[in-house]
Structure formats: C-alpha cells, structure tokens
Amino acid sequence: MQFTRYQKRVASWALIIALMTLLLWLLSSSLAPFAVAGVLAYALNPLVDRIDGLFRGKMPRWIAVAVVVFVLMLTITGIFMLVVPLFIKQAPALGQQVPQLFENAKDWIEAQAARYGVRLQLNLGTFKEWLQAFFQNSEKITQAGTTVASSLKAGTNVVMLVLGYLTLVPLALYYLLVDWDRFIGGLFALVPLRMRDSVRSFAQEADAVLGQYLRGQLLVMAIMAVFYSVGLMLFGLDLAWSIGIFTGIAMFIPYVGFAMGLVMAAIAGILQLGFAKAALMVAVVYGLGQLLESFYLTPRLVGERIGLHPLVVIFALLAFGQLFGFVGVLIALPASAVLLVAVRRMRATYLQSHLYKN
Fold it and tell me: What's the whole-number mean pLDDT along residues 110-115?
C-alpha cells in the first residue's frame, strides 16, 4: 500500500505529537517547576523589557531580570509570612468557640426534627472534643500540614518537591527571562520553512489571547485580594487579611478558588461572629465581590476575547488536573486559551473547505 506525501506528512506530525505528549506525561512531575517558571516568565517578560528599555541598553539585561525576580520572590514570601502565622495564631482562639458552635448546631437540628414529629438526639461530644483539641494544639496543626504536604507527592518524595519549587523555579525563571528572545527564536527556528508564516500568525494571535488572560488575571487577583480583605475586616473578622489574600490568589483557579475562600470565610465567621452575622458577611462581601469580578473587572481587564464557556472551564480543570496534577490545574486555562485559537482556525478552515461546502 502506497501512501501519498500528504498522508506521510500527517502521519509524521501525528507521531511527533504523540511522542511529545507521552514524554510530557511521563516527565510531568519533573517538568512541573519549569512549567511554573515558564508561565511566570511569559507574564513577567514585558516588565523586564520595559525596565531594560528605560536604560536603552546601558544596563545589562540580567540586572533588570534580577530585580524583577527578587521583587517577585519577596512578594511571595511576604504573602506566606502574612497568611500562615495568622492561621496558626488565631486557630486556638477559634477553637475556644467550637464547643458552643456544636451545641447550637445540635439544638437547632433537634428542634427542626421535633417540628416534624421526629425525636432525634445527637451525641457530638467526641468529635467536638477532638476538634477543639485540634485547634488548641499547634503540634497537631503542624502534623496536619505535614500530612497535606505528603499528599502532594507527584512521583517523587516531598523533599525533592519542595526543593524543586524553591530552587528550580527562581533559577529557571531567571535564565528564561535573561534569554527569552533567544529561547523563542530557537523554537521558531525548528519550524519548517513552508509553515513559518502560518505558525507566526498563530503565535501572534495566541500571544494576544494568552497575554490578555495572564496579565489581566494577575491584576484582577490583586484587586480582589484587597477587596475581600477590606470587606471582611469591616465586619470585624480576625482572619480578614489572611482569608482575603488567600481568596484573591486562589482565584487563579476559577470557581474552585472562590468557593474555597467563601467556605473559609464562612467557617471563620461562624466561629467568631455567630451564624447570623457570618451569613450576612459572606453574602455581602462575597456577593458584591463576585458581581464586581464577573461583570466589571474580568470583562474590562481580562476581556471576553478568550470566550471560554463555564462548562469548558470546568472540563479543562478536571482534564489537565488528571493529566498533570496540581500544575495541570494551574495551566489549564492558559493552555485552553491557546487551544481555543487552534480550534477557531480549524473551524474557519473547515467552513472554507470542500467538505463543508459540497
């Protein structure tokens, strides 16, 4: 059986794509720090170019890169130093109100059951005592953190995972930013000559969509972190800044991050303020925050150019998470934005083809 040149070409590209996909899947845990560094480098490269352009070549580029990487690491360290100690410090205070919270919940459930003629008696003593001891014992909180950390293993031990992210991400980010133009030029040089025009056009469109998403999303995250922190603080929540900042950062994962922040605020509010005030706080702060983010900030700063349907977003999060783990969840939407450009072009080609018209 003889294959045409077109069939051989398609088979060759299909084999290359399959091998690359298999390699990425097998090395996903090892490539995770480099994937994170690549996303950060793409988002931060325009800032480095702007700083470098201010000095018009009189200052080496590596100095601008070092400043940007240092400020980024300092910011991330500051966020962790703000969030983690607040949770550890406030946990025992919140634990003091756990017994009364469970008593109120027990009484309410039994009263509601009695209204419908059901005699119900709940015994939550053991669980209540364990939860109170958990909040008041910092060692158990540390042990819980260790347990969570151990569950994040992705084909290697947790020590290598931590060292990989703390060491490789800044290092890879630095070298990617220093040699960004040469790195992109080297990739483009591998493209066959007859395909360069179409690849260049595709890359420019994908860059517009992806750049709009990444840079706009970072700005939305910063604004919403301040909004949630100030809103929760006005209601008198002790963990306002830690929960607010966490919610803003977690919004990088659509729906999931917002839901996690809302649940954390509700639990902390019920423990400290009581059910009624906590419900009002969550409804006002997170309700207004969702309206602000969905109807103004995201359309204005991120733009509707990406055009991903909510069902597509949920599917992308699940699919990339299953394939590449936690890093897959982080890169799900940026990767989906690039794939969307490819789908648009395939659709346009199909609508102009003889297969569709005839």
Answer: 77
